[in-house]
Design brief:
single chain, 123 residues, mainly beta, Jelly Rolls, five-stranded antiparallel β-sheet, four-stranded antiparallel β-sheet, 11% helix
Length: 123
């Protein structure tokens, strides 16, 4: 059986990004990649092998896994129905919070929120 990618769902609220990954089968793989920021992977269910720059570590839920920026990393499920979440703050290239206008409900002015974020960043 070929390796498969995990099923994913992405959410963002209050500048917090989460990417849920459900590894349906043992061996399902999130391919190696790197980010320009540190982030946390929350292993909620099951177990995974995390390989960072060629070195592997196995984790069993529940467990928080620190992923350092600029490090190539890959996740492989060690059992069926493994569930993990990548979690990080949404920032622009200057480190300021980002806000998706489509995430703002009626009754909230996205421009006022952006202005507040800009004022906080300049302080």
């Amino acid at each position: 059986m070929d390796k498969a990618y995990p099923e994913t769902a992405i959410n963002a609220v209050a500048n917090l990004y989460t990417r849920m990954m459900r590894f349906a089968n043992k061996g399902d793989t999130e391919p190696g990649h790197a980010h320009a920021y540190d982030h946390l992977t929350l292993l909620a269910k099951g177990s995974i092998k995390v390989t960072v720059n060629g070195e592997a570590t196995e984790f069993t839920a529940p467990h928080s896994i620190y992923i350092q920026k600029d490090k190539q990393h890959e996740l492989v499920a060690l059992e069926d129905d493994t569930l993990a979440f990548c979690i990080f703050a949404l920032k622009d290239i200057n480190g300021f919070d980002l806000l998706d206008p489509e995430s703002v409900p009626k009754g909230v002015d996205p421009l006022s929120v952006s202005q507040n974020l800009l004022c906080e960043a300049e302080a």
